[in-house]
Amino acid sequence: MCMRISDHIILGEEKLNDADMVEITVDGKTILAKEGEPILAALLAKEIIINRYTLKKKEPRGLFCGIGQCTDCAMVVNGKGNVRTCITPVAKGMIIQTQTGIGGEENA
User: CA-to-CA distance for 85 and 40, rounded, in angstroms?
Assistant: First the structure.
């Protein structure tokens, strides 16, 4: 099931509904996302809920605060680790990977 906000109190209805659909790659799989929406929103719309695994215990993490204050949604985006996907907008051609640990070489 694909759930997306169609009318936002601040962004309004027009901006969200008129966004172009673009292709992004998530863990090697191509998905469609609305250009400009938060990466995390695009992932949740495709039922992708795990963004990273912790360094020591390898525990899964995903959406927590949704406002860029925690690091639970951090992923590797275009080769850069620790990108907070809840506040980073989707752009055409992005390559996104589930982050392991601190997002360094182990994700390359």
Answer: 5
Global confidence as pTM: 0.83
Are 61 and 50 within 8 A, CB to CB?
yes
Measure the CA dihedral 35/6/44/63, to 10°: 100
Q: Which of 93, 97, 56, 92 is nearest to 74 (CA)?
A: 97
> 52-69 pLDDT, tens per residue?
999 999 999 999 988 888
Interatomic CA distance for residues 76 and 25, integer angstroms: 12
pLDDT in tens, 8-45: 666 566 555 667 999 999 999 999 999 999 999 999 99
User: Of 3.40.50.620, 3.40.50.1820, 1.10.10.10, 3.10.20.440, which CATH number belongs to 12-103?
Assistant: 3.10.20.440
